[in-house]
Amino acid sequence: MSATIPGPSAPYAGRAAPAAGYRRLIAVALVLTFGLVMLGAYVRLSDAGLGCPDWPGCYGKLSPLHAKDQIAQAVAEQGGEHGPVSMGKAWREMVHRYFAQALGLLIIAIAVVAWRRRAALRQSPALPVALVGVVILQGIFGMWTVTLLLKPAIVTGHLIGGLLTFAMLLWLWLRQAPPPRYVDAEPVAALAGPALLGLVLVSAQIFLGGWTSTNYAALACTDLPTCQGQWWPEMNFRDAFHFVRELGKTGDGENLPMQALTAIHLMHRIGAVVIAFYVGWLGWRARATAGVGGLGAALLGVLVLQWLLGLSNVHFSLPIAVAVAHNGGAALLLALTLTLYFRARQARLQV
Fold this sequence. Notes:
This protein is 68% helix and 1% strand. It contains 13 helices and 2 strands. The chain has a two-stranded antiparallel sheet with strand order 1-2.
């Protein structure tokens, strides 16, 4: 028996034509946002966040090419290209900014279309307008990331803002298509609560991963499955999760102790175990539910991939390609959990 019945629902039939182009526009923004999340991770992990130490230009110029003299002087002053500034790091930072600016313009265009065609689309433009606000906030966080010298709270907030933009665009994209008509919607609808909890847990784990990365705590534990040869090493939670402080410093301005980095790393590991059990169960349950079985299988696949990437980060001492892929895997895990929750909410209307 077919899990879903094809064909658009009545409220969607009248707006199918105007929604198609609008949905494609959102899809472009969604793909660009995913690429930006990966590119931002690459900039952060390659220590290029201060490749251009001002904002929005590079030493007040349009591109690193125009600022080559200033970059050369900075490289000489820092004694080589191993410091925060180099031509390569400047280009990585500025390319990230160029793409972010393009995304901002695209999201403004989406909001304008949503407002002007709200009658034809039969949707409130509130979400696209809210997206513009999030993008403006992201721009502010991007500026602060540079001007406040990579403060962990700001950098983590910038990462979370990028994934929030990604999630909002995905939700907007999902609601443009007619909902599937399930043969039996009740089992799918019953997944709404578990999927929402899964979404909360994945979001919390993403925050822990971002906090680990922005504090350079990914290699605080270099052995598996223990940490520093112990199951529960000495840790300093007070300084680890003190959010208003400089990079590498405690709230009192002292050097951040190794015990604090250990606490950050180990909490991310514990979060990974929680995610493995809960999201694994959620994916298994969805896989056995007619109508969302493909989503469940994808959730399980990405979960396994994330675990392998996380283990590889520790075992191979954080290769950049693996670490960037781990960021992308987190975005995919968020997307699949959000999509499952969205579909379960839709199914509730058919029960």
